Amino acid sequence: MAHINLLPWREAARKEQQTQYLSIITAVALFSFLTVFLISSIYSARLDGQQKRNQYLQTEIAALDRKIAEIRNLNETKNNLQQRMSLISQLQGSRNLGTQIMDEIVKVVPSGVYLTSLEKKGSALLLIGKSESNNRLSNMIRQVEDSELLSEPLLEFIETGRAPGRLLSDFKMHVRVQGFEALQGEAQ
C-alpha cells in the first residue's frame, strides 16, 4: 500500500522557514541599526571635536587680532615719535641758520654794494640796497651762485640813482636759502 503521510509536514516546514526568515530579517535589521548607530556616533563625535577645534581657533584668532591692533597702535606711536625726533634734530641743527645766513650775506656782498633792507619770506630773502656799479652787483650775483647756503639769485630791478652827484643805483634782489626748504617741509 502506498504510504500516505497525513501529518501537515509542509505546513510545519513552511512555518519553520518563516521563523528562520523572520529571525534572519530581524538579525539583519538589528545589525543594520547597530551599524548605522555606530557610524552616526562616530561622525557625531568627529563633528563635536571639529566644532571644539573651530571654537579654539576662533578664540585664538580674536586674541591675535587684538595683539595686531595693539602692534599697529605701537607702530603708529613709534612713527610719530620718530618724526618728532627727526624734526627736533633738524631744528637743533638749523637753530643757528639765521646767524649762518647773516655770515654768508657778509661774504657775498662785495665792497661798493650796500644793503638797506633785508627781509625773509619763507625760504627766500629779499635784498634791497644800493650799488656803485653794475659790475659789483654782477659779482655779488656770482658769489651767491657759488655760495653753499644761498642760491637762485633773481635780480628784480636796477634803477640808476637820481640824486645829482651820487652815482648809486638802487636794486632789488631775491635769493633762496638752501636747506631751509627741507626744514619747512618737515615742520608742516
UniProtKB/TrEMBL annotation:
Transmembrane segments: 21-43
Keyword tags: Coiled coil, Membrane, Transmembrane, Transmembrane helix
Entry keyword Transcription regulation: no
InterPro entries membership: Extracell_DNA_Util/SecSys_Comp (IPR052534), PilN (IPR007813)
One Pfam entry name: PilN
Domain of life where this protein originates: Bacteria
Coiled-coil annotated spans: 47-91
Name of the protein described by the UniProt record: PilN domain-containing protein
Source organism per UniProt: Alkalimonas collagenimarina
